[in-house]
Structures are given as C-alpha cells and as structure tokens.
Amino acid sequence: MSLAEPSHHDDPRLQERVWSRLRFEAASAAAGEPLLASFLNAAILRHESFSEALAHRIAEKMADAQLDVLQMHDIAREALLADPGIVACAAADMNAVDERDPASRSLLQPFLYFKGFHALLCYRIAHWLMGRERETLAFHLQSRMSERFGVDISPAAKLGCGIMIDHATSVTIGETAVVGDDVSILHEVTLGGTGADEADRHPKIGRGVLIGAGAKVLGNITVGDEARIAAGSVVLQPVPARCTVAGVPAKPVGGSCAEPARSMDQTLPEGG
Known about the structure:
This protein is of the alpha/beta class. It is built from nine helices and 15 strands.
C-alpha cells in the first residue's frame, strides 16, 4: 500500500481529535509538572498544527552530525506538507497505541517517548523520499532510525496506517515487505527474506494481524487478515486469514480471534 493511496484512516476528524487531545494533555501535564513545562511548550503547545508538531519532534529525535535539527526539520516538514497521508497515518498510529497498549496513559507517551511511534514516523518520511528518487537521504534516515531506536525498516517497504510497534526493540522489516492497516507488532519481530534473492522476497502481512514478540516471518509469503502469530514462532509458510499459528516451524493451532491486533489477545487454545 502506498501512503498516498486512500485509507479508511484518512479521516480529518481523527487528526483533529488527536491534535486537540494532545494539546489538552500537554497543557495539563505542564501545569502538573512545571519542570517539563518548557519542553512541552516547545514540543507541542507552541505549534499551530499537528504536522508542525510532528516535524519538530522527529527533528529533535533524528538529528545527528550530518543533519542538524533545522535541516532534519526542513526535510520532515517538506514531506508532511507534500503528503497529508503521512500525517493521517501518524494520527492513526497514535490512536492505535492509545486503544491497544494498556501501559499508555495518554497520547503524550507515544508522541514524546515511544520509539515504535517515532520509528514509524521516520520510516514514513524516508518512504516519501524514496518515492522521489532521493534514495541516499532515505537510506541515511533508515540508518539513523536503526541507531536511534533499534528499529530497522527499509524505506522501500510498504506499511499501512494504524500500526502499533510495541516496545519496538530489534524490529526488522525488509525491503519488499508489505504490512496492512491496523497491524500490531511486538519487539524482536523480523519480516525477512530466506536468502540473497534480490526479487520480491519478504512477507505480505494482511490487515489486523497480531505478530507476537520474537516471531520471525520469512520469505515472500502471505499472512491473511486478522491472523495471529504466536510469540517466538518461525513462519515459513502462508498463514490463512483469522488463523493462529505457533511453533518452530509455525503450524496452525486453531483458536481464531476477532480483531487480534486490537484485542492484543496472545493466548493459545488449550492443547495449542
């Protein structure tokens, strides 16, 4: 899925709700914790739009010796203004964390602190650059993302909206991978290839899939909508929609679960 393509998450009302709530929570937090008031003002409250706040935040997180904060801000701002779909996906990603992560107390946490959200935003900007034949800069952002967040997402991969990467450490998503809308991915997940083939070699993950911690999905295989992949599994064969697989190598164990990415239900059926 190209980020420029229509998505069911492309709803201006969601962006407005996320931005309004984020500002309210930032103002409340600033009043309750004066030591962070200046930080919250710089990160959120002084900005006139969600896209401006996103550009500022990712610039602060991604700046390095090659691209300072102002240069990184200009890159991010250019991408966000040129492709409103990036902003729509960022709002949907934050909303996904709010709905699915019981450890998240407010929208402030993903926006300010959660590296899974930051890595996704960085990927979306790098993907935009890749589509405009600015590959060297896209790869620079990929490298910086890996160094900064411990997450490696190829800028050529195609990721949908409403994605949550929980904890995020050591997540790897390869060049020809496709990830649908509303997917939940836990830490140490790999969407990788099975060899040195330069052709289409990475998994295609359907809508609403839940991928448990440490799972490896390898090769040009399809994982159907609302499937579940148990923690620690190695998936080498296609997974039907609404099927649960577990093991090394992974095999179906039954126990379909409605909207597993939203419920985050990782339990296996008895005897599974």
